[in-house]
């Protein structure tokens, strides 16, 4: 019996919600930065025959991998050999359908009242599964056996009991056994969550309605794909991403050269070139400063305390920095996902408005909005400071205090990029001995292989928390010293600090909330 259109849309949305929740769980429980940060993983719900019913698309190529992985399991195991509480794994490109060996799939059969009705599945890249090089992705491999351990479709969990033998085998064939096994357990946990949510959906709508919805969704998908392909004009197409990047680099270079020609090299690089301006501000935080002859030590951040208010252009750069780093964190939260998905969905309902209702328009608007909102709140706090202190103007107060916010931007950059630097920065070690790739070994480090397990999820989490809290504490301390300098000691000075203190505490709470959210794509 056909499912009515409203119920069909509700079931489709609920399936999308299930795989989204599975994805959030996987990103939060992943041990390796490959899952937590790179998000090289996808989750899906499949029917009993291994056809994809719903997938949270992080990597579209996984859409074709899931049915192939399920086909390997269905070929190796009969229905009598599959029970509730089982979970299968595979990473074999031929026997299991994995895109390449480091991608390991977990498929857990879903049972409803004792009947096998589908799979909860996920596919995630592993940090290392053996092979000649760390990471198991060797550019000189000539056969799949040089890519590390290959696992055919096998039963990893039976009746909710994990096979310690399989975990030991996987661990012994990896340079990062804790990360590999930890990520695999997280994949099983995400699949179990998918099982539970799917069973709840069947309980709510009935097994027959759900299974019939699958067939209707397949038909709708096929019709949409055929219509989309039919709309393509005849001819050849080409990508433009590289051209856009090249165009941006050329445009930026022309602006820089033009600025130096018009205003002089020193003036433009000091006041107009964006990277020089930003890193010059960051240098004010450094504990080392240079006077006319020597390097001198100073407390971190002392260079951010000014005797005269900075220009509005300097203040604007700081506010933009803070707004944009907050935006970078916000777009990886479920709140952002809940905001943009209905917005971009309007383009599907009204194709004529696709140029307006799309991800990039919304992202650009919110990107521009963040610095404006933060700047508005900051100026409001400065006006409150003026009202409580009875000195200066709001403009002067803002330009005196704005640099005290800079440690927060620095802390965000540490939280975002330190782990990336520690992992990718290891490539500097062999490059020092062989900088031009001529086979040199100047310092005996040419054979060094980067350790992808150098830092884990726990280190990344605590580093982010410590960096953000430390940056905010330093900002509060600098604001206090500036208030003492401007308003003196006493009750008036104390009262003048309250608005900016409230801003910084609130901003700290927002920052910690962002990093505590599940990371979504």
Describe the structure.
The chain has about 525 residues and is of the alpha+beta class. It has 3 domains: about 220 residues, Beta-Lactamase; about 40 residues, no CATH class; about 210 residues, no CATH class. Helices cover about 60% and strands about 10% of the residues. The strands form 2 sheets. Strands 2-1-5-4-3-6-7 form a 7-stranded antiparallel β-sheet, with helices on both faces. Strands 8-9 form a two-stranded antiparallel sheet. β8 and β9 form a beta hairpin. It is globular. It starts with a helix and ends in a 5-residue tail after the last helix. The model has no long low-confidence stretch (mean pLDDT about 85).
Overall geometry: globular
Q: Indicate the CATH class of the largest domain.
A: Alpha Beta
Sheet with most strands: 7 strands, antiparallel
- In the sheet with the most strands, the strands line up as 2-1-5-4-3-6-7
Helical residue percent?
Answer: 55-70%
Give me the strand/helix succession: HHEEHEEEEEHHHHHHEEHHHHHHHH
Estimate the strand proportion.
5-15%
Number of helices: 17
- The average pLDDT score comes to 87
* Radius of gyration from the alpha-carbon trace, in angstroms: 28 Å
Count of individual beta strands: 9
- CATH fold group of the largest domain: Beta-Lactamase
- Low-confidence runs (pLDDT<50, min 5 residues)? none
- Assigned CATH architecture of the largest domain: 2-Layer Sandwich
Gap between N and C termini, in Å?
A: 37 Å
> How many domains comprise the coordinates?
3
Helix and strand content put the structural class at alpha+beta
């Amino acid at each position: 019996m056909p499912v009515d259109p409203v119920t069909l849309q509700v079931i489709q949305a609920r399936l999308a919600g299930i795989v989204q929740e599975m994805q959030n769980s996987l990103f939060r429980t992943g041990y390796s930065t490959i899952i937590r940060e790179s998000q090289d993983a996808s989750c899906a719900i499949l029917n009993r025959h291994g056809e994809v019913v719903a997938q949270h698309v992080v990597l579209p190529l996984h859409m074709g991998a899931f049915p192939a992985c399920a086909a390997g399991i269905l070929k190796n195991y009969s229905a009598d050999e599959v029970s509730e509480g089982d979970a299968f794994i595979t990473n074999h490109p031929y026997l299991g359908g994995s895109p390449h060996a480091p991608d390991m799939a977990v498929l857990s059969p879903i049972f409803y009242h004792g009947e096998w009705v589908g799979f909860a599945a996920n596919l995630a890249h592993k940090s290392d599964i053996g092979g000649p090089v760390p990471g198991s992705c060797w550019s000189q491999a000539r056969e799949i056996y040089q890519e590390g351990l290959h696992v055919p479709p096998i039963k990893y969990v039976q009746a909710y009991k994990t096979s310690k033998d399989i975990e030991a085998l996987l661990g012994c064939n990896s340079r990062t056994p804790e990360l590999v096994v930890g990520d695999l357990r997280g994949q099983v946990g995400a699949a179990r969550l998918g099982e539970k949510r799917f069973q709840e959906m069947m309980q709510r709508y009935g097994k027959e309605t759900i299974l019939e919805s699958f067939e209707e969704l397949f038909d709708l998908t096929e019709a949409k794909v055929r219509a989309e392909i039919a709309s393509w004009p005849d001819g050849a197409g080409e990508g433009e991403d590289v051209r856009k990047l090249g165009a941006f680099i050329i445009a930026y270079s022309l602006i820089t050269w033009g600025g130096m020609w018009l205003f002089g090299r020193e003036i433009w690089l000091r006041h107009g070139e964006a990277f020089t301006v930003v890193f010059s501000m960051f240098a004010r935080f450094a504990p080392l400063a240079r006077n006319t002859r020597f390097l001198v030590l100073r407390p971190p951040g002392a260079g951010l305390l000014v005797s005269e208010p900075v220009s509005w252009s300097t203040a604007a750069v700081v506010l933009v920095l803070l707004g944009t780093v907050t935006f970078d964190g916000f777009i990886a939260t479920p709140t952002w996902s809940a905001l943009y998905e209905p917005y971009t969905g309007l383009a599907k309902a009204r194709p004529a408005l696709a140029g307006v209702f799309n991800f990039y328009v919304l992202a650009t608007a919110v990107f521009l909005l963040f610095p404006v909102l933060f700047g508005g709140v900051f100026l409001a706090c400065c006006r409150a400071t003026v009202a409580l202190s009875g000195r200066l103007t709001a403009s002067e107060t803002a330009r005196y205090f704005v640099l005290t916010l800079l440690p927060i931007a620095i802390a965000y950059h540490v939280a975002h990029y330190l782990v990336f630097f520690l992992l990718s920065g290891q490539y500097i070690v062999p490059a020092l001995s062989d900088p031009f790739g001529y086979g040199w070994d100047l310092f005996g480090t040419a054979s060094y292989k980067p350790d992808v397990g150098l830092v884990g999820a726990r280190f990344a989490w605590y580093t982010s928390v410590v960096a953000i809290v430390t940056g905010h504490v330093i900002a509060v301390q600098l604001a206090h010293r500036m208030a003492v300098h401007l308003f003196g000691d006493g009750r008036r000075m104390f009262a003048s600090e309250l608005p900016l203190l409230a801003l910084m505490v609130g901003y700290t709470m927002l920052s910690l909330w962002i990093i505590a959210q599940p990371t979504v794509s």
